[in-house]
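Work package 3, deliverable 3.1, input record:
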Amino acid sequence: MSPQSILTPQSEDFPAWYQDVVARAEMADNGPVRGTMVIRPWGYAIWERMQADLDRRIKDTGALNAYFPLFIPESYLHKEAEHVEGFSPELAVVTHGGGKELEEPVVVRPTSETIINAYFSKWVQSYRELPLLINQWANVVRWELRPRLFLRTTEFLWQEGHTAHVSEADAGAYALRILQSVYADFMRSVMAVPVLVGRKTPKERFAGATTTWTCEGMMRDGKALQMATSHELGQNFAKAFDITFADAEGGQSYAWQTSWGASTRMIGALIMAHGDDNGLRLPPDLAPVQVVVLVVRDEPEVVAEANRLAAELGAASVRVQIDDRTATSFGRRAVEWEVKGVPVRLELGPRDVAAGTATLVTRHDGAKVPVPLSEAGARARAALEGVGAQLAREAEEMRLSRTREVASVEEGREAAEGGFAVMGLEVLGAEGEAALNSSGVTVRCVQRRDGGLPGPDDPDSDLVAVVARAY
Amino acid sequence: MSPQSILTPQSEDFPAWYQDVVARAEMADNGPVRGTMVIRPWGYAIWERMQADLDRRIKDTGALNAYFPLFIPESYLHKEAEHVEGFSPELAVVTHGGGKELEEPVVVRPTSETIINAYFSKWVQSYRELPLLINQWANVVRWELRPRLFLRTTEFLWQEGHTAHVSEADAGAYALRILQSVYADFMRSVMAVPVLVGRKTPKERFAGATTTWTCEGMMRDGKALQMATSHELGQNFAKAFDITFADAEGGQSYAWQTSWGASTRMIGALIMAHGDDNGLRLPPDLAPVQVVVLVVRDEPEVVAEANRLAAELGAASVRVQIDDRTATSFGRRAVEWEVKGVPVRLELGPRDVAAGTATLVTRHDGAKVPVPLSEAGARARAALEGVGAQLAREAEEMRLSRTREVASVEEGREAAEGGFAVMGLEVLGAEGEAALNSSGVTVRCVQRRDGGLPGPDDPDSDLVAVVARAY
């Protein structure tokens, strides 16, 4: 069985390829309740690595983790007008608890601004306690009519940060620090996805925010995927939830706030930014297994050599696994590791061992080279070194080759059939955005012409809009 | 302000002391929906350390993490008769999603046996894939009428493991491995709580299990707290969910299963097993901050010395924090760290620094000793070394001094007013258990006379029951 035969080719039907790879790599299954998802061990191990890296970065900014309840009184949602309007259509509502009908129905959190800010209101007293920087890892629920595993699911896992600051400038700087040093840098250096960063248009803003910043990745079908957002909330929630503090001048002020989140959607991005017709291609930093030692036949000298190699790699902190399930054909097992995206395979057969060699296979470029057994461990480690950078380079070349500068809204709509289109923000305008939306194209972000972040005083004439079809 | 004045003394009103310490140590708050809980950063940081240690131990047994949906079709619960009977009174039910009434209501998971076993049924085909060892970290909901922070909350955080095996012996051995090497060893060596391990009586068994194993700790009011359980499920769920596999002999067999869990309840245990009238006493392995360097007055030479000490301790991988909030009185800050249970304080004032000394305060025994500044870092590290063992010793001495061997059910009832009572299992009998239950005393676990675990063939005459009032 060749790898090609088990997955629909990307060029034939990209969504079918995605579905195939999620199933065949054992990443996830559909749950029994519409739109829910079972994250299988291979998918969850990738998520754990994403979590660990992001959690460290979040803590480096000074934020502390906490946990707020899943259930929110319905009335809380109504305190911020735009927020409730944005989330009402997606809510799951609990009406019965402990065998009785509840007096007030409770909603399952779609996001936690309302409940967290109700507590910020109690906790924040003085400017001395600010900034208050809180993060939580949690599940949230947004009822999804057209679900897709990892990309749009009724329940998903994420982190959500919520902060309160003494000034607008401090809140703004923190929202950008999260955008850049937590999200964008993680996506570029760990996920190997060269995201664009920019500001959302008012139409695409988070419900209740004054500014939404975003990281946008290009998938291998040319579509965009929003991979994380960081919001400045102004004083909207502070006023709705009465978050005031004694300021340094002896008065009372409303806090300035931010919120920011990244979810299991990033797993979908990882799949679609790097995967090929043979399956996943994982950057080594996120691969649950970095090197698999594949025993072709379980003869004693082969198994001994496999154990020696695995021990050597394990001692060098490589995540290594031996596959000696020789009751299953070698070809089938090779295809399985290929689909799962393990960066490096060391294949060991009786003839190899007799000849003092192993076959080193690198997943990202499909190269197979014989290596001396004595060097196999070192060569495998060396092969891992370059994988992340190579995947990032490929992804960046793809994005560049599928991005067109255009001079009109109509050209932008056409260019978005195959990738990203970049046009002057003045050329676009609110009418142009509406016109694009009606053909399924959205503004992904607004940037400076050089790709930098727009400042609050930049005139539209200095800015561009990146438009695309999106997940 | 002395520490004593901010907490109700334990001897006066233990539940009030508990409530005070949870609030004053900023561990948790009540949520707005009855029985829910906000875990504040100090409480959550302890939970993260518990999670990290348990997660490593769970993975060492070969289990893999995964994630299953929060929402379970109501019909799933009905597939195992005892299970649905056990959980029905506690369910939260979602009747509306996405603005519409649902065709079939869904329940919020109270535990995940049903949904996980529905997938095991799909995944398990051959004995070659067994054992299947899965764990998940998740929130669960059991509607709670008499909630208490950490101890009984409508929503709580936990891990739940679910496994399938080829034989009863294999499942049984695995359930015990989890009990001992994951739970009991963690509680004894990391939490410093000398738990008793044993078997639950049929009356106290998990709904759907054939055997339930438990870890029971004694709190400082003499009551018991169940800190984790590990269940053998026999083939009950395998038959209800049709989990069959092709066995090595060419036939089809039902799998043998286990499940096991430990929750945020352990935080309540940590508080009540070690806390005193001045607040928490944390074992260093779980303390978010192990050493606090307390600056009495923020004069330059004092701050410089505090920074030097913190850097030295940080470089030695000690979790250290400087408290230089000199706008707040020194006494008040000292009390705060005392309540929060930080194991070691280094207090630095201008006179200390001028004299070349610091004051080293150890939380667990309240000792204060002057130490030369040049040795302060090393002395603080040395002080941390013994804390866990000392807390464990104290907790064990307390348990031994409050445990009585008794010869009748009535004596057991009386002894349980102040601690644990141990009686022959034959003396107890089913009638005795019912009699104890009616006075609020329960059988915590069944053990061999030497404290060992009962074997399947041990006659009742060789076994004892440990009975107590319990949380």
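Residues 191 and 270 of chain B are 7 Å apart (CA to CA).
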